[in-house]
Design goal:
The chain is mainly alpha-helical. The chain has a single domain, classed as Monooxygenase (Up-down Bundle), CATH 1.20.1280. 82% of the residues lie in helices and 0% in strands. It is built from 4 helices and no strands. It has helices at residues 4-16, 19-28, 36-56, 59-82. The radius of gyration is 14 Å and the shape is elongated.
Length: 83
């Protein structure tokens, strides 16, 4: 039995968890509580996970990390714009 579905579910949950943060930032434009350094390091780590996913051909790893990277870069963009 393949555990690929576990990876897909975990990927969906950890990716979609960023949506409330993005929605809150878009609504309030309050970024004081957002760490630019933390999110920059997170973006770099997610980019490495994406490269890893591409190298092993894992759809859940690729999809989750591609979307998560977009979400984190949106958060970084909010931080840079509304600091």
């Amino acid at each position: 039995m393949s555990l690929e579905w576990v990876g897909a579910l975990a990927a969906a949950m950890t990716t979609l968890c960023w949506l409330p943060q993005i929605m809150q930032l878009a609504k309030t434009r309050q970024t004081a509580g957002i760490s630019l350094a933390t999110n920059a390091f997170l973006a770099a780590g997610i980019a490495l996970w994406l490269i890893y996913g591409l190298s092993i051909g894992s759809a859940p790893v690729i999809g989750a990390n591609a979307l998560t990277l977009v979400f984190i870069l949106v958060i970084v963009g909010f931080k840079l714009r509304y600091h």
